[in-house]
């Protein structure tokens, strides 16, 4: 819906719409120069908000791009370390401590 | 072999290893044999895992150092020095991989902390929450990386065999398990 409302006696009137308690409330700002100024200010505010959102989205994507390979390295290293322990005769006890399997105790 | 193909093979190998962990621990000889077979390729697997993380670290170094030529020069050297110090003299392929992980997670944590400190005053609540989550994850990963390296060193410390040659006692250290042994440690006593 356009923020410019056509009046019966002619001319355009600038309005702002916002949601209050689930209902759309319309604020009548003004026509002529006042309406144009308010429209300009709202457009600037919207543009700044969109720019900030785009910058934040880019930063989030950047963080994710840097974090993902490190996360993969961690996951793979953990699996390889566990596999090496299993190959060396260890068994994880209750998802905690690693112990030598019976009959495979190292001689000290 | 094409690089993409090799990358998918290493992912498949690691996924397969993960599925073999349970049965191998339960004593399934066939699973254990396959697990050992895959571990024979550990040096190549480790390289495939480390390469993308190193690329990410280089990107972080570039962003972190910005236009500061001193930082651009010093940061990669600092990271290499850390790796060398943590790895010691004869690291096994697994130790090298775990050291890479410790350094990568440490640097990611530094990077997130710097990023947070830089933007702290201008963040919305949602953005602040997101940064805190990133920091928490990075810290957990780093602690886990240190714990695993320490655990591997404690549990897989090389067994020492004593051999006497020409009236000299030679201690040979090195495991039989694939991926554990680096260059054998020789100590003449």
What does this structure look like?
The complex is a heterodimer of chains A (108) and B (189). Chain A has one helix and five strands; from the N terminus they run βββαββ. By secondary structure, chain A is of the alpha+beta class. In chain A, a hairpin with a 5-residue loop joins strand 4 and strand 5. Chain A is rod-shaped. By secondary structure, chain B is mainly alpha-helical. In chain B, 71% of the residues lie in helices and 8% in strands. Chain B is built from six helices and three strands, in the order H-H-H-H-H-H-E-E-E. Chain B has a three-stranded antiparallel beta sheet, with no helix packed on it. In chain B, a hairpin with a 2-residue loop joins strand 1 and strand 2. The C terminus of chain B is likely disordered. The chains are: A alpha+beta (108), B mainly alpha (189). Chains A and B meet through helix 1 and strand 4 of A and helix 1, helix 2, helix 3, helix 5 and helix 6 of B.
**Cα distance, first to last residue of chain B?**
47 Å
Shape of chain A: rod-shaped
Overall geometry of chain B comes to: globular
Count of helices of chain B?
6
Helix percentage of chain A? 40-55%
Helix-strand blueprint:
The complex is a heterodimer of chains A (108) and B (189).
Chain A: E1 4-6, E2 12-20, E3 23-31, H1 32-87, E4 90-92, E5 98-100
Chain B: H1 3-25, H2 29-39, H3 42-65, H4 69-87, H5 93-119, H6 125-155, E1 160-165, E2 168-173, E3 185-188
Antiparallel strand pairs in B: 1-2, 2-3
Q: What are the main properties of this structure?
A:
heterodimer; A: 108 residues; alpha+beta; three-stranded antiparallel β-sheet; two-stranded antiparallel ribbon; 1 helix; rod-shaped; B: 189 residues; mainly alpha; 6 helices; 3 strands; globular
């Amino acid at each position: 819906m356009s923020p410019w409302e056509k009046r019966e006696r002619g001319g355009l009137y600038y309005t702002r719409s916002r949601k209050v308690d689930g209902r759309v409330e319309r604020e009548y700002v003004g026509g002529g120069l006042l309406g144009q100024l308010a429209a300009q200010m709202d457009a600037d505010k919207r543009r700044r908000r969109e720019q900030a959102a785009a910058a934040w989205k880019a930063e989030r994507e950047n963080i994710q791009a840097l974090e993902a390979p490190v996360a993969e390295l961690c996951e793979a290293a953990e699996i390889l370390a566990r596999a090496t322990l299993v190959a060396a005769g260890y068994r994880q006890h209750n998802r905690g401590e690693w112990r030598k399997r019976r009959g495979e105790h190292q001689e000290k | 072999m094409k690089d993409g193909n090799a990358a998918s093979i290493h992912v498949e190998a690691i996924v397969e290893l993960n599925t073999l962990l349970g049965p191998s621990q339960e004593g399934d000889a066939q699973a254990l044999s396959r697990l050992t077979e895959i571990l024979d390729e550990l040096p190549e697997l480790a390289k495939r895992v480390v390469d993308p993380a190193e690329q990410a670290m280089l990107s972080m170094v570039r962003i972190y150092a910005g236009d500061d030529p001193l930082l651009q020069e010093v940061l990669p050297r600092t990271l290499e020095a850390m790796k060398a110090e943590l790895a010691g003299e004869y690291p096994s392929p697994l130790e090298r991989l775990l050291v890479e992980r410790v350094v990568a997670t440490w640097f990611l944590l530094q990077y997130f902390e710097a990023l947070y400190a830089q933007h702290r005053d201008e963040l919305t609540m949602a953005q602040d929450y997101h940064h805190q989550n990133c920091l928490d994850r990075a810290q957990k990963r780093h602690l886990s990386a240190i714990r695993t390296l320490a655990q591997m060193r404690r549990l897989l410390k090389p067994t020492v065999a004593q051999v006497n040659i020409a009236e000299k006692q030679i201690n040979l250290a090195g495991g039989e398990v694939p991926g554990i042994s680096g260059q054998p440690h020789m100590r003449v006593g």
